[in-house]
Design a protein that fits this description.
By secondary structure, this protein is an alpha+beta fold. Helices cover 31% and strands 35% of the residues. A 7-stranded mixed β-sheet has the order 1-2-3-4-5-7-6, sandwiched between helices. α1 packs across α3. The longest helix has 15 residues. The radius of gyration is 15 Å and the shape is globular.
């Protein structure tokens, strides 16, 4: 597996990995105001984020250059030492193969070696146990802060996680 820059054509693939509105909200929280989205929504959102700088959408590809995962990295501080992971997703037909942990490891290397990160952060919904397990296996630890989102009339608690890399 390798990481490469997101290509607009990846958006259609990412959408196919999302099997339900619940999975969609676990992936993006409230970052999109409607479901389902189409590829143009992702491209537009990333274009808007990219115009501000400090935003790095990446796609994980297998040895045949087929996308198997995706995530974004972005700076969260003016010193550019903290990088947040977001929009983390693995091909739904390939989950439970260890690809998420591997992709996070590659993203960690990218964040450290190319972006100069000292700390990595992310948020995960408490109810998304497979993702929480993956992040923990990749070395992330609970940070203590939490937010709550209302989704489908339910209160979804976000667990903030971090990983010190320097």
């Amino acid at each position: 597996m390798t990481l490469r820059e997101f290509q607009n054509t990846d958006a259609e693939t990412i959408i196919r990995w999302i099997r339900s509105e619940r999975e969609f909200r676990e992936w993006c929280a409230d970052r999109y105001d409607h479901y389902p989205i189409d590829a143009a929504d992702i491209v537009s959102n990333y274009g808007n984020c990219g115009s501000r700088g400090g935003f790095f959408p990446l796609t994980a590809v297998d040895d045949d250059n087929v996308p198997v995962g995706h995530l974004i990295l972005r700076y969260t501080d003016t010193e550019k030492t903290t990088v947040r992971f977001g929009f983390v997703i693995i091909d739904s037909s390939r989950r439970s193969e260890g690809l998420g942990k591997k992709m996070l490891g590659l993203a960690r290397e990218y964040a450290v070696n190319k972006l100069g990160a000292e700390t990595l952060t992310l948020g995960v919904f408490e109810s998304n146990q497979p993702a929480l397990n993956c992040y923990t296996a990749a070395g992330f630890r609970k940070a203590g802060g939490t937010d709550v989102f209302e989704v489908f009339g339910e209160k979804w608690r976000v667990i903030e996680m971090f990983l010190r890399v320097r």
